[in-house]
Each structure stands twice: as structure tokens, then as C-alpha cells.
Design brief:
With about 325 residues, the protein is α/β, with parallel strands linked by helices. The protein has 11 helices and 13 strands. It has helices at about 20-25, 30-40, 50-65, 90-100, 115-130, 155, 205, 220-240, 260-270, 280-285, 290-300; strands at about 5-10, 15-20, 40-45, 75-80, 105-110, 135-145, 160-170, 180-185, 195, 215-220, 250-255, 310-315, 320-325. Strands 1-7-6-4-5 form a 5-stranded mixed sheet, sandwiched between helices. A 4-stranded mixed sheet has the order 8-13-12-11, sandwiched between helices. Bound molecules: oxa(dethia)-CoA (UT7).
Length: about 325
Amino acid sequence: MTYAAFRSIGAYVPEKILTNEDLSKMVDTSDEWIVQRTGIKERRIAAKDERTSDMGVEAAKLAIERSGLKLEEIDMVICATISPDYFNMPSTATIISTKLGLGNITAFDISAACTGFVYIISIAKAFIESGMKKNVLIIGAEKLSAITDYTDRGTCILFGDGAGAAIISATDNKDEAIIDVHTGSDGKYADLLMTPNGGTGSPHDSIGQEAGACFMQMKGNETFKVAVRTLTKDVKEILAENNISSDEVKHFVPHQANYRIIKAVGDALKMRDDQVVLTVEKFGNTSGASIPMAINDIYESGKLKAGELMLLDAFGGGLTWGSALIPFSPVK
Ligand code: UT7
């Protein structure tokens, strides 16, 4: 039997910092409100000429180097993003693949918003377990500043830019294997979190290019409530189905949307503070990039060791959600 192992992690964080203080000069808000309601103090903003693919490439270089693989051993690239270099095509994954010099391998993007990284773990796992691919580079990369309306205080305080990447590889050692991945969706909540304009539902020719074609809109409070309810149910189920107690989880790595959502789900699972990975304070919500950026954070600070069990959870536009139980399995 072939299994899929989570071998390595990398991330890229843009230099420019946008603080709550900066935002309070742009919209009617305050550092106190943002910290109290979200836990966010600052977020990173990519340079004007820095594209999603550029950030994805930097994160991927680290993940590849840390995996010990040669470039020619990688046989597929998947990128999760809602802020691609180009609308519709070409995919950001093909651009990243070529910038890295990976050759003519399979490369594609997926759209699952903030759940994107969990979705691409499940896709990589399926390709590997079926024997179709051996070493898959997965990337969550976002330049959300390009699709954020900086006159809307309900969204602009939340989002930031960045990228994270990982290598998922084939193994015959079950102890190294990704244990389980859950993915789900419910389109009846589509209007809670969306970029309403620019697609076939509201094409560019009818709205005009200047009309903020691709800005995100969110019904924050409703999204918040569905997020807590759905995530709590999903993470409880994935633990129960795999006979794993929350105590056995070394690192709970939730999507970094809002500290209050993370706290509510963590409390429902009886997670101790030392189990919960938090980067929301310094990076805000980076959608599909938030989980790999958080994993990289504990890796680079020396907290993530071989064999330790991670529990991931995510929730986002679609609506989509997902969770995963993954031992960190670098090549020894
Ligand atoms: O990552 C994908 C999934 N995304 C999420 O899970 C995000 C979920 N939602 C949230 O994180 C929160 O709902 C927000 C942080 C967006 C908003 O927090 P909230 O506690 O749900 O606030 P609210 O929307 O209920 O608004 C409360 C008040 C309102 O004023 P009134 O009507 O009570 O007078 C808002 O107009 O806060 C006001 N408000 C603000 N005030 C200062 C909304 N945004 C701001 C702001 N600064 N930035």
C-alpha cells in the first residue's frame, strides 16, 4: 500500500507591514476594536509589482529545499488561491512551476477560498495513494490586498498577503502517513463571502472595469456563526472517526481568520493554549496561505518536530470547510 506523507514546509512573508494604526487612518476603526474583535494587530502587504506567483515561488523554494528532493523528482504542482496572477487563465500553478524550472509537469489551481490548503492536501493524497504521482508540491498563495476594498472597514481590517508551500510524497511506511482529510461545502451560503462581480453572474461588460470588479464582500457576523458551528462539528468528527483524542494532538493549526473563532473551536475541543498555533496577530487572514504560513511559523521556531501530530481546520467562501490529521514526516 502506498501512503502520502507530509514531508516539508516553507513560507514567504512580504516585507511591508500594515498596522491597525495605519488602517484607522483609512477607515473609521481603531486598534482597540480590531484587536478585541479579531486578535489581529498587523498584516503583511505585497509590493505593487509582487505577484501571487512570486510569493508562491519563494515559499516553494524553501519547501523543496527542506524536502531534500531534486527538482526533477517533483511530478505535480497544485496552487490554492483566490487572488491568482490572472483572472481565469493561465493558472498560477503553471506560472510557479515554470519559474521554479520544474519542467512540463501537471500544474493547476483550485478555488476553495480559505479552505484551499486542506483541499489540496486531500487532492495530493489521492493522487499519491492511487499511484499516479509521487512527489506533489502544494502551495497556498494570496495577494488579498489586490482584491480588498480599502473603504470597507468590515473586510479591510482582516486580510493580508503571503504564501506557504509543502511537499507531499509517497511512502510505504504507515506511521508517516497523513491519517485523514475531511472536505465539505454548502453553496446555499454562497452569498456570505464572495467577490460578486467579474464572473458570468455579473460580467465585466455589464459592470464596467472600474467598479471594483473583484473585491471581496462578506457578511461577517453570519459567517462567524456558521464558521464556529461547522468547524466544531467537523473537527470533533475527524478526531472521533480516527479514535484520536484532542490530547494526542501536538499542534492544532486552525485557519487564521479570527482569534475568537479559533478560541471557540479550541475550547470546544478542550485544547490547551500550548497546543493552539496562532499567527493571526501578525499576519491577519491570508486565506489559502494561512495554514501553511502557520505551520512554517512553528517549524522555523523549532516547535514542530518529526512525528508530531497536527490537526488542521479551515473554513471559507463557498462555503467550504475541512480538517486534516497529519503527522509531520520529514525525510530522516
Ligand atoms: O476566512 C474566511 C472566513 N471569514 C471569517 O470567518 C470571518 C468571520 N467574521 C468575523 O471575523 C467578524 O464577524 C468580523 C471581525 C468581521 C466582525 O466582527 P463582529 O463582532 O461580528 O462585528 P459585527 O459585524 O456584528 O459589527 C458590530 C459593530 C457594527 O456596528 P453597530 O451596527 O453595532 O453600530 C459594525 O458596523 O461593529 C461595527 N464595525 C466596526 N467598528 C469598528 C464593523 N467593522 C468595524 C471596524 N471598526 N473595522
